[in-house]
C-alpha cells in the first residue's frame, strides 16, 4: 500500500513561484515576438511604398509647372551670343510670287514659297561690334533641310542700304537685317540661324513659327 505524504508548504510555494516565473517569462517572450513581427511588417510596408514612389517618380515626365502635364517648349524668338543680341522682328510667308518693285524687272516666281525674315541685331556690350562680325544664315526645317538666302537674286527687294552685318554701337536700337528665302511648301517648324565670328565663331537657332 502506497502512502502519499502531503508536500510541505515551502515546497508548494517554490513550485508555484517557479510556474509563475515560467509563465511570466513565456508571456514576455510572446510579447517581444509580437512586437518584433509588428516592426518587421511596418518596415517592409515602408520600404515597399518607398520603392513604388521612386518608380512612379522616375516614370513621370519632367514638369516644372506643377500641373502634372509636361510643358511644351516655348518658341525661342531672341538669343544673345557674346554681346550681340538677336531678335526676330518679323517673319512673312509671301507665297510663290515676289512682285517686282519696279516696272523694269520681272517678278520672281517659285513652285514653292518665298519667306521674308527681318532679324534685329543689338550691341549689349560696351564697345563697338565690328562690321561683318555678325550675320543671319540659313533657314532650317524640322527634317533638317537647309534653305539658303536668295538675297543675291532678290536684291531689288532689299532695303537700301542693306544693314546685314553692319557696325553695332553699344545699346543702340536693334539694326534690322532683311533676308529672303525660297522654302519648300512641306517644310514645318522653321528656324533661322544667327551667328557671330568674333571673338570666336558661334551660332544658334531662332524659331520662326509661332
Topology (elements, then pairings):
Layout (H helix, E strand, L loop, with lengths): L8 H51 L18 E4 L2 E15 L9 E16 L10 E7 L5 E2 L27 E9 L7 E6 L5 E6 L3
Task: Explain what you see.
It is a single chain. The chain is α+β, with helices and mostly antiparallel strands and 210 residues long. It has two domains: 45 residues; 130 residues, Immunoglobulin-like (Sandwich). It has one helix and eight strands. It has a four-stranded antiparallel beta sheet, with no helix packed on it. The chain has a four-stranded antiparallel beta sheet with strand order 5-4-7-8, with no helix packed on it. A hairpin with a 2-residue loop joins strand 1 and strand 2. The radius of gyration is 41 Å and the shape is elongated. The mean pLDDT is 84.
User: Strand arrangement, largest sheet?
Assistant: 1-2-3-6
Oligomer: single chain
* Largest beta-sheet details: 4 strands, antiparallel
* Number of beta-strand segments: 8
What is this entry, summarized?
The protein has 210 residues and is α+β, with helices and mostly antiparallel strands. The chain has one helix at residues 9-59; strands at 78-81, 84-98, 108-123, 134-140, 146-147, 175-183, 191-196, 202-207.
Amino acid at each position: 500500500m502506497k502512502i502519499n505524504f502531503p508536500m510541505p508548504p515551502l515546497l508548494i510555494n517554490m513550485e508555484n513561484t517557479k510556474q509563475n516565473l515560467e509563465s511570466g517569462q513565456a508571456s514576455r517572450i510572446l510579447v517581444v515576438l509580437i512586437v518584433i513581427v509588428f516592426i518587421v511588417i511596418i518596415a517592409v510596408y515602408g520600404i515597399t511604398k518607398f520603392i513604388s514612389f521612386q518608380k512612379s517618380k522616375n516614370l513621370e515626365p519632367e514638369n516644372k509647372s506643377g500641373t502634372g502635364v509636361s510643358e511644351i517648349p516655348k518658341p525661342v524668338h531672341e538669343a544673345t551670343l557674346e554681346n550681340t543680341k538677336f531678335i526676330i522682328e518679323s517673319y512673312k510667308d509671301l507665297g510663290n510670287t515676289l512682285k517686282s518693285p519696279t516696272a523694269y524687272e520681272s517678278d520672281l516666281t517659285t513652285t514653292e514659297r518665298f519667306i521674308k525674315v527681318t532679324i534685329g541685331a543689338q550691341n549689349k556690350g560696351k564697345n563697338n561690334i565690328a562690321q561683318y562680325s555678325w550675320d543671319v544664315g540659313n533657314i532650317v526645317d524640322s527634317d533638317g533641310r537647309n534653305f539658303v538666302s536668295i538675297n543675291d537674286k532678290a536684291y531689288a527687294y532689299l532695303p537700301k542700304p542693306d544693314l546685314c552685318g553692319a557696325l553695332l554701337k553699344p545699346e543702340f536700337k536693334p539694326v534690322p537685317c532683311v533676308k529672303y528665302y525660297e522654302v519648300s511648301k512641306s517644310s514645318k517648324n522653321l528656324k533661322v540661324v544667327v551667328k557671330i565670328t568674333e571673338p570666336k565663331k558661334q551660332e544658334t537657332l531662332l524659331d520662326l513659327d509661332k
